[in-house]
TrEMBL record:
Domain named Integrase catalytic: residues: 181-304
Organism: Nymphaea colorata
Residues in the signal sequence: none
GO function term, MF aspect, one: nucleic acid binding
Protein name: Integrase catalytic domain-containing protein
Amino acid sequence: MAHIKREGNPIADGLASLGSTITFRTNEAIRSFEIGRLEHPTFETMAHVHHIQGGNTPWYDDIKRYIESGEFPTEMPKNEQKAIQRMSARYFILVGVLYRRGFSTEYSRCLDEDAAKEVIEESHRGDCGGHVGYQILTKEIIRAGYYWPTMQKYCHQFVKTCKECQLHAPVIHAPASHLHYVTSPWPFSMWAFDVVGPISPVASNGHKYFLAATDYFTKWVEVVILRTVEGRHVVSFIHKNLLCRFGVPHDIVSDNRTHFKNEKMRQLCSRYHITHHFSAPYYPQGNGQTEATKKILIRILERT
């Protein structure tokens, strides 16, 4: 490849400058285009605008009207009518209620603002809520079969104003550090065990202890509540919640208290060829995974 100077390449130079020699008869022949980037999908903005303009009118009012009668509001622009037509393909009406076809669920019921607030309140502060973060809260509402366009925004605002979440939020004192490698080679091959309790006040049926097992790889937690904790309870818990559901683990980690270190546990580990590792009670960091699970359980109890 050789470089040719401009003086020696007049043909290419002429082609490059040809565009500037073209003249147009009128200025109308030159059109300019403005290119922009939207921060949010157009249909979310439209639904929000319609909701404000209509007062108590739900965001899905135009979609439902189009499905029922095929009509649009007289003042609606053409571009919004086309958007409503496209969106209506994912919606249907069943017994007078509008539903949306989803990907993760078969269909989701569309909620207005008042119903959405009730669902958020029950999902976050209800008996099965647990005061989770806004991302998990949004996913739980979707799995429950509900939908509205601004779900994540509503959940985020609600969690930020929850009094219990603010009072019992964790205060991180440790400085940032590097990530550590995963100690478990595959899912459900290594579990960490611990007991939380006694808790106060005691449950109405006398339960006051939590027996928790956490998988090192997936961070999945299995929990059972007990009145007392003995070796037979731990063995039954491993049989029912681990072996029958996730298979035989390769390793389990616990402290050396009597409900973990006993003859029944030794027989179980010997029968299924499970390696049992022990951490010292005076050094809980030796079983850090279960200590992290214990903090989460205690935080949920404090908030509820």
